[in-house]
Amino acid sequence: MYQVGFAKKDITVVSKGYAMHGYGMWFHRQKGVRNKLYSRVFYFQDKTGAGIAYICLDLGYVTHAMRRGIEEEMARRHPQIDPRGLIIACTHTHSAYGGCAHEPLYNVVTPGYHPHLVENIVEKSMAALDEAIATAAPGEIHFAAGDIPEELPVAWNRSLHSYNRNPDVTKYTEKECHLAVNRQMQALTVRRGSRLAALMTWFGVHATCLGNRLTNLDGDNKGYASQLTEKALPDNGVAIFAQAACGDVSPYYHGPGQEKERKKIKGEAEYEYARQNGRYQSEHALRIVHDCSETLVSGDFDCEMIYVDFSDLQVDPEFAGGRDDAFTSEPCHGISFLTGTPVDGPGMPLLLGKIATLLADGVKNRRLRKLDRLPPGKSKYYRRLYAAQCKKKIALESGTTQRAVLGLPLDHPLIPGFADPMVKELKRQCKIGALKEHGLVPYILPLQIVILGNVALIACPGEFTNTARKRIVETAAPILEKRGVEQIIFNSYANDYMGYVTTPEEYGEQAYEGGHTIFGQWTLAAFQTEIKKLAREMLKPQSERRLDRDTRPPAYSPEELELRSNLPPR
Q1: Residue 330 domain flag
Q2: pTM for the structure as a whole
């Protein structure tokens, strides 16, 4: 029996005229609200007094700016909660506001940073946590899981060719994309007496039922799933529908004729489609917690969270095919990142993409030919960059050493701003001096393991594909089993956001997901290396753990943030 509390608060703010986060399209502007956005919070406390807080936001991403603000307030108001035991996740709806990151790239089409939105998220999340703690009462926690039936049209693999490159998966045809996903939903339920009071679920499917031509804030399928489920719970019951691994999972049909099928669903039909997808998730969640056997969660809590610099990390040969020279590099975005996905989010026109590909190849060849004539630092940078990024056609270098588009500095007059609105906005912000101090994306990232007795949650930033998730779980499970963990829940989009994580095989395809795997072909191997280390340390008493407690994301100066805050839309 644990002390458990839960609550939710409205975080909706309409910034009319500003773009939403998710699709990265300048025309995806906010005009109103279709359904409110919420911060949903659970609080757990074991018999030792150790507290765990879980926050799930109806937003497209979690940023370090949000986490830092919540941590600071939590330390002041609830010091009994170790910040290592705070998980902040999101539903990844693409119909929510953006502009909430100190790092500039994922704010770029908003445009800019909007401090009042981060302050609102912190304030409302803390109000929900205050209420969850104040109303905490004895309750049992149970784990349940069950596969969504194959015939239920809820999820499809949107990158099948990449998926089929993996040696550890069943190969599927284009007519079987619905099978090339992890259809299992996992759940933690809170029961008081025999009555279901609240629940949390994890199932991977993109919250992109609502396309980029709609102009209302909305929680998309995950938001509808929460709303529908909360109606079935007692008064004040809270239902979280968080993301597992949905990097290559779409809520729309994928297969022969996919673009034609998607075009049939427009406007109001998209909202109904989102409601239906959410209904499928809600009904399945209630089915597995009522009809399937549940496992009682028991035992004390434990938690660890570290920050790792992913821009220059040597990976364990175990995860790199035996190679001892496998490194990540500073972040880069590929041409396929700009061209987008054909159904969920088309981007740059393919013709421009082909031209950009030729330019990227030219930049790479020219640089590699001149390596021996370059200063040592620059030579090392290019060697590491192209060894790590490998097959990626690099459009954007986003790190701290160099920020460039197709090899040219961001403010270079020849940068083709007409080709992509993101590039155009980067040029504008560069000209006003807003991009001088740091890289464009996070590169020092949080990794977290939270143990609730016999259940562990692995929380990672970014968007993991199905098979990337599977390999992370397979890496951690044999280690955590030694301390009594029977079930592992993988939670993506947690604590920060930096892009995608694909397997090396998927990365080689260089579809959208590979183009957005910013640290190169060994990104997943780097995550496996660090998760393995973290899990091993958690076999020891806390006082004996050897973990880096000092590494943290860089601080952004008020002057730099001011230059890109509340920029007028264009």
Answers
A1: no
A2: 0.97
